[in-house]
Please model this.
Amino acid sequence: MSATYTGPKVCLWTLDHANPASLETYVANGGYSALKKILAERTPAAEIIEQVKISALRGRGGAGFPTGLKWSFMPRGYDGDKYIICNSDEGEPGTFKDRDIIEFNPHQLIEGMVIAGYTLGAKAGYNYIHGEIFELYQAWEKALDDARAAGYLGQNICASGWAFDVHAHQGYGAYVCGEETALLESIEGKKGQPHFKPPFPASFGLYGKPTTINNTETLASIPWIMRHGGQAFLDLGKPNNGGTKIFSISGHVNRPGNYEIPMGTPFADLLEMAGGVRNGHQLKAVIPGGSSAPVLPAEIIMDCTLDFDSIAKAGSMFGSGAVIVMDETTCMVRALERLSYFYYEESCGQCTPCREGTGWMYRVVHRIEHGQGRPEDLDLLLSVGSNIAGRTICALGEAAVGPVQSFIKHFRQEFEYHIANKRCLVGA
Amino acid sequence: MSLSAQSLAQIDKEVAKYPADQKQSAVMAALRIAQVEKGWLAPETIEFVAGYLGMPTIAAYEVATFYNMYELTPCGRHKITVCTNLPCQLQGADTVAEYLKKKLGIAFGETTPDGRFTLKEGECMGTCGSGPLCLHNNHTMHTHLSTETVDKLLDELK
Model:
């Protein structure tokens, strides 16, 4: 067996070249040609949106919402400022793909943001970068300077007379700012607390102006779609799941890292590309789409393909394509304890069910892990969870509940053993 | 209380990214820049930043207390923040964290008596494939940590 993918890559193809991040490398390989063509021909926005719709590009940040449809929500003929925002606030445990786009192919992201700005009639764009990757924030600012100097940003883009600029905004340690309304608050210089939708950002976004927020990988895919056509992008993946996708694989594999492969690739192939489970151990469980996605036992995930539909059918969430692999030595109680602590720590405190509930869930899992669990604790956890989900402004509360419910559903015996015997079943 | 001319120039550059009537948008960057200069955010530093951006002090204070990379109490010269979240944990972060605690003789959230090191437990830094990892003074990431590379790192941080 040797699972490899040698076909076209949408986002991380620059890694096959020397100086992958440089403007020269990007331009020498067709970079910015889609933007130039659009500006020279004054391609109508509706035509661009149509190509994005054909491509079946679905939001790469986790929700999987069709990008073309999202773009069509922006009001046309609006007489005022509009904004395009790139969401690079990548802090969902297991996800580390957007950082690689910024590090290794920043100009494709810039081109994607400029095309989006042109299509949606925006005045400016902001890229919201996760706080902990400051070195990439600096690298991104340098890429913006290079693009400005070359006329791809600024007052007169590609000598077309059209003006648009992109800026970087750095987060400083708040997972919840990955939620789009919290992110907008944060750019406005406030606490990053989400607010109710509606109003949706397309009508009331940054500074109260129409705004579209897309994930980094989503926006970086746009130039490829415009250069090769929506159909070519769709053909890379499978129906309703266009394109290649960057999968971030971490945990108990021999070669953790990012792998850009077609949507619909069997999970088993990705596992093999990552060198298989470490030290020849057996696969126990996989969280397929970032820490908020329900965990799946080995026997279920091994039959899945990596796309929105297959993972949803298996009872989990494709999410951001962040695959966390756990082998047979993993204590599922300890793993859940760490995830529950994360949501407790990161709840913004605005909605009572989430603020109180995440702390409650963490404390109960903590006591089970530390040999003080009570027989009624599993029912208590599920009851607390059901009082969070659907009762909060944003999805963080539900994200905290997903792991609790799924870990208990698939590994209940391990939790019961912990409670009854005050120690771990796997001896970790 | 003021900030250096260099810090103010950096803040001005951030302010210029936003519409003229939205200077508050630069508060996160301004607090970061102030923290780099002062080592932590004293109440008078936050007050200065708020005044500089023409926003209420309480609004700047809200931001400083909401985002966890700001320090509201004095901090060691070298702040080491270790990610212990699940992917890093599976890749050995607990071993690294225990080693750091033992070697520095402090727990998470504490500073060594000589003021050289502060140790913190961090949340996901979005670089899980390279864990275990830590962040030095918020801005420099060190990946693929082992007890050997931790020794080397600590030796370099005087």
